[in-house]
Amino acid sequence: MSTVKIKIVNLSPFDLPQYATPLSAGMDLRANLSAPVTLASLQRALVPTGLFIELPAGYEAQIRPRSGLAVKHGIALVNSPGTIDADYRGEIKIILVNLSDTPFVLQPGERIAQMVIARHEQIEWEPAAELAETARGAGGFGSTGVK
Protein backbone atom coordinates (compact mmCIF):
# COMPACT_ATOMS: atom_id res chain seq x y z
CA MET A 1 0.00 0.00 0.00
CA SER A 2 1.46 3.36 -0.97
CA THR A 3 1.52 6.42 1.27
CA VAL A 4 1.32 10.14 0.57
CA LYS A 5 3.09 12.68 2.79
CA ILE A 6 0.83 15.53 3.92
CA LYS A 7 1.99 18.51 5.95
CA ILE A 8 0.04 19.05 9.17
CA VAL A 9 0.11 21.69 11.89
CA ASN A 10 -1.29 20.47 15.20
CA LEU A 11 -2.23 23.24 17.65
CA SER A 12 -4.20 20.85 19.85
CA PRO A 13 -2.77 18.99 22.88
CA PHE A 14 -3.73 15.67 21.27
CA ASP A 15 -1.72 13.26 19.11
CA LEU A 16 -1.93 13.50 15.33
CA PRO A 17 -4.83 11.61 13.74
CA GLN A 18 -3.88 8.02 13.00
CA TYR A 19 -5.31 4.86 11.51
CA ALA A 20 -6.80 2.58 14.18
CA THR A 21 -6.08 -0.62 12.23
CA PRO A 22 -3.78 -1.50 9.31
CA LEU A 23 -6.69 -1.45 6.81
CA SER A 24 -8.59 1.59 8.15
CA ALA A 25 -9.62 4.16 5.54
CA GLY A 26 -10.26 6.99 8.00
CA MET A 27 -8.51 8.62 10.92
CA ASP A 28 -10.41 9.93 13.94
CA LEU A 29 -10.48 13.68 14.59
CA ARG A 30 -10.76 14.97 18.16
CA ALA A 31 -12.61 17.93 19.67
CA ASN A 32 -10.08 20.60 20.60
CA LEU A 33 -12.06 22.04 23.51
CA SER A 34 -10.90 23.57 26.79
CA ALA A 35 -14.11 22.49 28.58
CA PRO A 36 -17.09 20.21 27.90
CA VAL A 37 -19.79 21.55 25.55
CA THR A 38 -23.43 20.47 25.81
CA LEU A 39 -25.40 20.03 22.61
CA ALA A 40 -29.14 20.25 23.20
CA SER A 41 -31.54 18.26 21.04
CA LEU A 42 -31.31 19.51 17.41
CA GLN A 43 -28.55 21.98 18.32
CA ARG A 44 -25.56 22.43 16.00
CA ALA A 45 -22.01 23.34 16.96
CA LEU A 46 -18.86 24.18 15.02
CA VAL A 47 -16.18 22.17 16.83
CA PRO A 48 -12.49 23.00 16.35
CA THR A 49 -9.85 20.28 15.96
CA GLY A 50 -6.69 22.38 16.18
CA LEU A 51 -5.51 20.79 12.92
CA PHE A 52 -4.39 22.52 9.71
CA ILE A 53 -3.31 20.52 6.64
CA GLU A 54 -1.68 21.10 3.28
CA LEU A 55 -3.06 18.61 0.78
CA PRO A 56 -1.30 18.03 -2.54
CA ALA A 57 -3.12 18.92 -5.77
CA GLY A 58 -5.47 16.12 -6.80
CA TYR A 59 -6.39 15.19 -3.21
CA GLU A 60 -9.24 16.07 -0.86
CA ALA A 61 -9.95 15.30 2.78
CA GLN A 62 -13.42 13.87 3.32
CA ILE A 63 -14.94 14.43 6.76
CA ARG A 64 -17.39 11.73 7.79
CA PRO A 65 -19.43 10.92 10.89
CA ARG A 66 -18.41 8.33 13.46
CA SER A 67 -20.86 5.44 13.56
CA GLY A 68 -20.56 4.96 17.34
CA LEU A 69 -21.61 8.55 18.08
CA ALA A 70 -24.46 8.24 15.59
CA VAL A 71 -25.96 4.99 16.88
CA LYS A 72 -25.37 5.57 20.61
CA HIS A 73 -26.09 9.31 20.88
CA GLY A 74 -27.67 10.54 17.62
CA ILE A 75 -24.67 12.76 16.84
CA ALA A 76 -24.21 13.44 13.13
CA LEU A 77 -22.45 15.83 10.78
CA VAL A 78 -24.59 18.48 9.14
CA ASN A 79 -22.63 18.45 5.86
CA SER A 80 -21.73 14.82 5.44
CA PRO A 81 -19.39 14.10 3.93
CA GLY A 82 -17.64 17.43 4.21
CA THR A 83 -14.85 18.22 1.76
CA ILE A 84 -11.56 19.95 2.48
CA ASP A 85 -9.97 21.15 -0.76
CA ALA A 86 -6.24 21.14 -1.46
CA ASP A 87 -6.06 24.96 -1.40
CA TYR A 88 -7.74 25.36 2.04
CA ARG A 89 -5.31 26.31 4.82
CA GLY A 90 -7.67 27.10 7.70
CA GLU A 91 -8.39 25.03 10.77
CA ILE A 92 -10.39 21.85 10.28
CA LYS A 93 -13.68 22.36 12.11
CA ILE A 94 -16.53 19.88 12.37
CA ILE A 95 -20.23 20.83 12.21
CA LEU A 96 -21.91 18.48 14.68
CA VAL A 97 -25.65 18.18 15.25
CA ASN A 98 -27.51 16.37 18.02
CA LEU A 99 -30.38 14.49 16.34
CA SER A 100 -31.47 12.77 19.56
CA ASP A 101 -34.09 13.97 22.01
CA THR A 102 -31.61 14.28 24.89
CA PRO A 103 -28.66 16.63 25.50
CA PHE A 104 -25.20 15.32 24.66
CA VAL A 105 -22.06 16.44 26.50
CA LEU A 106 -19.06 16.68 24.19
CA GLN A 107 -15.80 16.21 26.08
CA PRO A 108 -12.40 17.75 25.25
CA GLY A 109 -10.43 15.25 23.16
CA GLU A 110 -13.49 13.21 22.23
CA ARG A 111 -13.35 11.56 18.81
CA ILE A 112 -15.97 13.41 16.77
CA ALA A 113 -15.44 12.57 13.08
CA GLN A 114 -13.33 10.61 10.64
CA MET A 115 -11.08 12.04 7.96
CA VAL A 116 -10.44 10.10 4.74
CA ILE A 117 -7.83 11.37 2.29
CA ALA A 118 -8.87 10.62 -1.29
CA ARG A 119 -7.60 11.29 -4.81
CA HIS A 120 -9.95 13.03 -7.19
CA GLU A 121 -10.03 14.18 -10.78
CA GLN A 122 -11.19 17.44 -12.27
CA ILE A 123 -13.35 17.19 -15.36
CA GLU A 124 -14.06 19.21 -18.44
CA TRP A 125 -17.70 19.37 -19.57
CA GLU A 126 -18.46 18.12 -23.08
CA PRO A 127 -21.78 19.69 -24.15
CA ALA A 128 -24.00 17.20 -25.99
CA ALA A 129 -27.50 17.13 -27.48
CA GLU A 130 -28.21 13.66 -26.07
CA LEU A 131 -26.74 10.91 -23.91
CA ALA A 132 -26.20 7.20 -24.63
CA GLU A 133 -29.17 4.96 -23.79
CA THR A 134 -28.99 2.43 -20.93
CA ALA A 135 -31.39 -0.22 -19.61
CA ARG A 136 -32.04 1.93 -16.56
CA GLY A 137 -32.52 5.18 -18.44
CA ALA A 138 -33.79 8.05 -16.29
CA GLY A 139 -35.17 5.77 -13.56
CA GLY A 140 -34.16 6.70 -10.03
CA PHE A 141 -35.45 7.00 -6.49
CA GLY A 142 -36.32 3.32 -6.09
CA SER A 143 -36.94 2.53 -9.75
CA THR A 144 -34.74 -0.59 -9.63
CA GLY A 145 -37.09 -2.28 -7.15
CA VAL A 146 -37.17 -3.14 -3.46
CA LYS A 147 -35.36 -6.49 -3.50
| Gross CATH architecture | Distorted Sandwich
Sheet having the most strands: 4 strands, antiparallel
Helix content: under 10%
- What is the total domain count? 1
SSE order and pairing:
Layout: E1 7-10, E2 27-30, E3 37-39, E4 44-48, E5 51-54, E6 59-64, H1 67-73, E7 75-77, E8 82-84, E9 93-98, E10 104-106, E11 111-119
Antiparallel strand pairs: 1-5, 2-11, 3-10, 4-9, 6-8, 6-11, 7-9
Overview of the molecule:
The model has no long low-confidence stretch (mean pLDDT 95). The chain has a single domain, classed as Deoxyuridine 5'-Triphosphate Nucleotidohydrolase, Chain A, CATH 2.70.40. The protein contains 1 helix and 11 strands; from the N terminus they run E-E-E-E-E-E-H-E-E-E-E-E. Helix content is 5%, strand content 34%. It has one helix at 67-73, and strands at residues 7-10, 27-30, 37-39, 44-48, 51-54, 59-64, 75-77, 82-84, 93-98, 104-106, 111-119. The strands form 4 sheets. A 4-stranded antiparallel sheet has the order 2-11-6-8, with no helix packed on it. Strands 4-9-7 form a 3-stranded antiparallel sheet. A two-stranded antiparallel sheet has the order 1-5. The protein is mainly beta and 147 residues long.
